[in-house]
Write a structure and sequence with these properties.
It contains 6 helices and 16 strands. The protein is an alpha+beta fold. Strand 12 and strand 13 form a beta hairpin.
């Protein structure tokens, strides 16, 4: 099973060219794909409906899209309103059915400068060959450490509450004539999870430590409900982003894949393709 996390920068490559099909070619070989920065109806991308385009370009994948925010982009033709929403968010694609999804809007702080936007985490329950797994496509704030830590705390709290809250619905249908459950059993909602996305922080950061926990006296300790960085566990180092900072080229791993302890035995290999220019980020692959 091949996992892929990729911030596609709404189809704009490192060469400044808009080419969504180029990004789709990068991700096509993956079984479960977590995309960030996917949009609908922005003028910079020709008002494209990117989730719909990606769905057409990747016809062998189930898809789900979660907009972090939604703005009016409607027009009129003189006789009626043409409703259209300008959206920006995350997407999950899977070769196996996506049983349910829900969108988590992450805490944010109002900013004077630079620009700050709402960040999302799209959660999907996927029926994989390893059983049902909750997969999250996450995009954390790009400016402030404290804001990212608040967002991580929010996600960790949601993760810890999973056994208590369950999935999008639970219980026995007491109005069967209305068929609230579509005659289906309560959907699974295991604590087993994979977090993938653009975390805008590096492995040695405070944010990373908040996710994985710090166990200085017991290296490699694993909490039953904890999360482990797949790349670090495999003993690998790589980078998914290149940027010139203060005149120096920085090679940074901002994109990560975290898994719950029960999935660790299945981890096999992680890699990225630093030759790809379909985005300003590089795709992160993890094989299980």
């Amino acid at each position: 099973m091949k996992l892929l996390s990729y911030n596609i920068q709404y189809g704009f490559g490192a060469d400044g060219q808009y080419d969504l099909a180029r990004a789709a070619k990068v991700v096509g070989g993956a079984d479960i794909i977590a995309l960030q920065e996917v949009e609908r109806h922005w003028s910079r991308t020709g008002h494209d409906d990117q989730p719909a385009i990606l769905e057409r370009l990747l016809p062998n994948h189930y898809t789900a899209y979660g907009p972090a925010f939604d703005m009016d982009a409607s027009t009129t033709d003189g006789t009626r309103v043409i409703n259209r929403r300008r959206q920006f968010g995350t997407m999950i694609l899977s070769r196996w059915p996506i049983i349910w999804t829900r969108l988590h809007l992450l805490p944010m702080r109002r900013m004077i400068t630079p620009l700050n936007t709402q960040n999302p985490a799209l959660e999907a329950l996927i029926q994989t060959p390893l059983g049902p797994i909750r997969v999250l496509s996450i995009h954390l704030a790009h400016v402030g450490t404290e804001e990212r830590l608040t967002q991580i705390d929010h996600l960790l709290n949601l993760h810890a509450q999973t056994p208590r809250t369950g999935g999008p619905w639970s219980g026995t249908d007491d109005e069967p004539s209305r068929n609230w459950t579509e005659s289906q059993p309560e959907p699974p909602c295991p604590q087993t999870a994979i977090w993938m996305g653009d975390f805008n922080c590096e492995p040695e950061s405070r944010e990373h430590a908040r996710i994985t926990g710090a166990t200085p006296y017991h290296p490699g300790a694993l909490y039953a409900d904890g999360l482990t960085n797949a790349v670090a566990h495999l003993g690998q180092t790589l980078h998914t982003h290149e940027k010139i900072i203060a005149g120096q080229t920085r090679l940074r791993q901002l994109d990560h894949c975290f898994v719950t302890a029960d999935l660790i035995p299945y981890l096999r290999h992680a890699w990225t393709d630093n030759s790809q220019i379909a985005s300003d980020h590089h795709p992160l692959w993890v094989e299980m």
